[in-house]
Specification:
heterodimer, A: four-stranded antiparallel sheet, two-stranded antiparallel ribbon, B: alpha/beta, four-stranded antiparallel sheet
């Protein structure tokens, strides 16, 4: 370093020991290492006393887990880790549905808050103020209470054409399930269907090329992509049924006081998802509003001057730019949905946290179970972050 | 677009129709009156330059002509279309009137090409290939065809403003509004934008230009209009303005900027 003016620094020997930078660095690092060593040593000796290990997870569960969907385990022959994974699947389901719904509602409400229509803007503001200023736990339990008390008993079930049922045991509707043997279908079936799909893809490509050619000639839009997609979808469905359609609709029935078959949305699931959605969508609405308002007013004016409609202005000019602001904040909200899903505990929805607690009640090993719980939540959060970072990289790829 | 390239200096404006009619237009921002009883008629192919100190209402006036601002009283008729609450009229007017802003207001997330083709494709439902061809033609016209695939942030201010002009022209308007198009530019880029505007004027476009570029006003304008405190103070030919202004306020303004 060149020092132009001033007196030269004193030689090292004249600086008192405690004022030397190198000595200070060494000292702080030494303290840090010492504290870490003490903590690790304490934890290690504690674990040693309690026989830390995960072997207990492989023992038979001997308890039931509710709210199962697309899985069917009774807990008699299954291990504890299997039951835990069923709970993880229940958590994931609630989180994914809540993320999708809160995004859609959040964007709609956020845009509505900026509406020039006074009533629409006020309604949106009311929505935001109610749901972001009350506790999530209260919202989840309130929805659950409404569903249990408000919905009819299963003896008086609301039956919509033997197709859709509503009672305080939940909503039930038909759901497609693969027939027995679908997964070991004869190889010729899969082969023929895949061949049919490839053929349809080729035909769809042709249709698209023809349409585009005609668009070039006539100057009229011919919607090549939509036609191609339609042709392919039609072909796929027709060939699927022509080959015997090894999937059937599973229609719900009521036996005694229970639904069997079909897809059942239990009140616990509905309450948790509804609570997470209402609460988070209010925050997402504010994030969307902020992202839009942060854009220069000139963007709206330029879009108007070019003649775009209000909807085109929003989807082609405003939202694509606002996403740069919106995505990082919305990622945080998605992570909150993941973590807040543990409030399932309050409505007895068998999510990963509740199942883990049952395991711990049966087997002890609290430390290991909390380790597993924390790692699971972190992994889900990590997966959400990775996906959102991918989207973020896409919208920020272009410097603006 | 009509092309009457050779018709510049001695155009017979008398025989042409009024394409813009403003009658007794008032505009208020809260308690502040931005426009006070403005009446004006502008003929097709006419080049009008609007002058005035800042806050005089000149920008507000041209923003009323494509309803970026809503006038509070009076009447505005663009090419025979009444400016009123009828949404169809508003859409029709916006497709006849192109606008160029002081701050360019290009869409930063779209390439130069897509900035220009967005309107034609989404509003006019023009096929992509035709819109692309039109955009290239306009980029040639404003002199930057080689920038088609760049993004606005990669261009200089002058280039951005020329893209903005091309974007407005892509909707094939009959009237072009310029709201201080060179005020945000570095001095060495002003000329390239004024050259494009001059070429546009020669081609017969009806233009209303808010600017402080007196050279442009003197050379290109058919008529100058001077605004002050929301009122139309004086109007006339460039000769009238620069050699023999009548009103005190006009004289004061011109003495300060010339």
């Amino acid at each position: 370093m060149a020092v132009a003016t001033g007196s030269a620094p004193p030689p090292p020997s004249e600086v008192p020991l405690l004022y030397r930078r190198g000595v200070r660095r060494l000292l702080t690092q030494g303290i840090y290492v010492a504290i870490t060593a003490v903590v690790i040593g304490y934890v290690y000796t504690s674990l040693d006393l309690r026989e830390f290990g995960f072997g207990f997870l492989n023992e038979p569960a001997a308890f039931k887990v509710g709210n199962q969907w697309l899985v069917d385990v009774d807990g008699v022959t299954n291990s504890r880790i299997t039951m835990y994974l069923v709970g993880v699947w229940s958590s994931l389901r609630a989180v994914l549905v809540a993320i999708a719904l809160s995004t859609v509602i959040g964007v709609l409400v956020g845009v509505a808050r900026l509406s020039s229509n006074w009533l629409v803007a006020q309604m949106a503001m009311l929505y935001v103020e109610i749901f972001r200023n009350t506790p999530l736990l209260v919202q989840v339990v309130l929805v659950y209470t409404i569903l249990l008390i408000g919905a009819p008993l299963i003896e008086n079930v609301v039956n919509v054409g033997d197709f859709f049922f509503i009672s305080n045991r939940g909503m039930a509707m038909p759901w497609p399930v693969p027939d027995e043997g679908f997964w070991n279908a004869p190889i010729w079936f899969v082969g023929v269907w895949v061949a049919a799909l490839i053929a349809m893809a080729v035909v769809a490509g042709r249709v698209r090329a023809q349409r585009q050619e005609r668009e070039r000639e006539t100057g009229q839009p011919q919607y090549g992509n939509r036609w191609a997609l339609g042709v392919f979808a039609l072909g796929a469905v027709v060939s699927f049924f022509a080959l015997g359609a090894p999937v059937s609709m599973d229609e719900p029935m009521i036996v005694g006081t229970h639904y069997i078959e079909g897809m059942v949305m239990e009140p616990e699931f509905t309450a948790l998802v509804a609570g997470l959605t209402l609460y988070t969508s209010a925050f997402i609405a504010e994030i969307v509003r902020g992202g839009i308002q942060a854009l220069p007013r000139g963007q709206t004016e330029a879009a108007n001057a070019v003649g775009l409609s209000g909807y085109q202005r929003l989807t082609l000019v405003i939202l694509p730019q606002a996403l740069r602001q919106i995505i990082p904040s919305v990622t945080n909200q998605y992570l909150n949905i993941n973590k807040n899903s543990s409030l399932a505990y309050a409505v007895l929805y068998d999510d990963l946290f509740r199942v883990a607690n049952i395991v711990q009640n049966k087997a002890g090993h609290a430390l290991e179970m909390f380790f597993v719980i924390i790692v699971t939540y972190m992994l889900i959060s990590f997966a959400i972050s990775v996906v959102m970072n991918f989207f973020n990289a896409r919208v920020t790829a272009q410097r603006i | 677009m009509t092309t009457e390239t050779a018709s510049t200096p001695a155009r017979d404006l008398e025989s042409m129709d009024d394409i813009i009619i403003a009658e007794n237009v008032d505009k208020w921002f809260g308690d502040f009156q931005a426009l006070d009883d403005i009446s004006m008629r502008i003929k097709e192919h006419e080049i009008v330059v609007v002058l005035g100190p800042s806050g005089s209402g000149k920008s507000t006036f041209i923003r009323c002509l494509n309803r970026l601002e809503e006038h509070d009283a009076g009447r505005i008729v663009i090419d025979g279309i009444e400016m009123n609450d009828d949404v169809r009229n508003l859409n029709a007017i916006r497709s006849e009137v192109g606008m160029v802003f002081q701050q360019f207001n290009l869409f930063p997330h779209l390439s130069v090409m897509n900035n220009i083709t967005l309107g034609p494709r989404k509003v006019r439902r023009m096929p992509k290939l035709d819109a692309d061809a039109l955009a290239m033609q306009l980029l040639e016209r404003v002199g930057i065809p080689e920038q088609a695939d760049k993004y606005p942030a990669q261009l200089s201010g002058g280039q951005q403003q020329r893209v903005a002009i091309a974007r407005a022209l892509a909707m094939q308007p009959k009237i072009m509004l310029f709201d201080e198009p060179t005020s945000a530019l570095d001095p060495e880029m002003i000329k390239e934008v004024l050259d494009v505007m001059q070429e546009l004027a020669r081609s017969g476009m009806t233009m209303i230009v808010v600017t402080h570029e007196m050279g442009f006003a003197r050379e290109v304008a058919d008529r100058l209009i001077f605004f002050d405190e929301g009122s139309l103070v004086e109007e006339g030919t460039p000769q009238h303005f620069f050699e023999n202004p009548q009103e005190e306020r006009t004289k004061l303004f011109l003495s300060q900027i010339l």
